[in-house]
Amino acid sequence: MNKLFAPYDLAGLALANRVVMAPMTRTRTPENIPGDLTVLYYAQRASAGLIITEGLPVSEEARGYLYTPGLYTDEQTAGWRKVTDAVHAEGGKIFAQLWHVGRLSHVSLQPGNAAPVSSGTVPATTTMVYAWVEPGKEGPVLPSAPRALTTDEVQRVIQDFVASARRAMDAGFDGVEVMAANAFLFDQFLSSKLNTRTDQYGGSIANRQRLLLETVDALAAEIGAEKVGVRVSPFGRIYDMEAFDGEAEAWMSVASALNERDLAYVHLNYQTTISAAGTPEGFGAVFREAYRGTLVGAGGFTQDLADQELKKGELDLIAFGTAFISNPDLVARMKNGWPLAKPDPSTFYGVIGAKGYTDYPEYTQNQA
């Protein structure tokens, strides 16, 4: 059997195959609560060995984009329960990705129109977020200048993640993934260029990675380490992230620290040029040496490339992103050699309704 379609034991969770549906923001929920189309969207894709949801803000403060469903209210928890029930009814497994955007937000999205929070006060100036341009008018805007979290507030943010993880369990998720990639809050703390703190969360590499590790440890204590995954994007250059001194050393320290924890997996987003332009040659193999647990690879994978990587043994699971948007039956298409449908990028974000979301047919239906 092709390794991509072989079963996999994920810390005691039986996956039908090694295909992962990558987390993808879709901005499809006007009330920030998953509805019937969200339920259908994920259920249609339940043949993936594991689904990782779009990023779910753990609080109002954590939000950086309009129409992203969260996981911090009773209504949101109830909505996600419908999603997990539908996925499980189709034989699938699903993790909730827990998200805090940090400085990548706008005052119009923040409680009381407050400044977004970050590790420091360095603003993002070369990227946009989706917020209120003016009252009643939505659109892309520059992120607002952030303020640095106080030491006490850092502890509160950790507890926001813990509370959201508990809600994830109540909603029937099989586990949670900490979004520590793509220039969001944890990346901001790890970067010596953005993190100018003088408390225990700034300065040395050990201090700058402290927020991530304390969050992971708190989640493990609350729901079990075997239900916790972490997504990282070493050398990421997306969303106004820049190189910083000691970057390679910092990422290897993170890999080694995560290896000491019996997590469900680490999700390594490192391959695509846009998100990891500065990745050194052979970094994946070096990361694997430091982190020996289940490793998920993400970033522009095709089926052929996924097969090659699995044979090399550096990765255990392969995440596919946009291919899942237009191919709800992606696993069957790859397994049978059927052609893949192309997605419509104009419907990736912000469209209300089924178009470009739940109206892509399965291959057999298309042929009929």
TrEMBL record:
Gene3D superfamilies: Aldolase class I
Alphabetically ordered keywords of this record: Oxidoreductase
InterPro entries membership: Aldolase_TIM (IPR013785), OxRdtase_FMN_N (IPR001155), Oye-like (IPR045247)
One GO CC term on file: cytosol
Signal peptide coordinates: none
UniProt entry tagged with the keyword Oxidoreductase: yes
Superkingdom of the source species: Bacteria
GO molecular function: FMN binding; oxidoreductase activity, acting on the CH-CH group of donors, NAD or NADP as acceptor
Cofactor(s), names only, from the UniProt record: FMN
Name of one Pfam family that matches: Oxidored_FMN
Family: Belongs to the NADH:flavin oxidoreductase/NADH oxidase family.
Annotated protein name in UniProt: 2,4-dienoyl-CoA reductase
Lineage: Bacteria, Pseudomonadati, Pseudomonadota, Gammaproteobacteria, Pseudomonadales
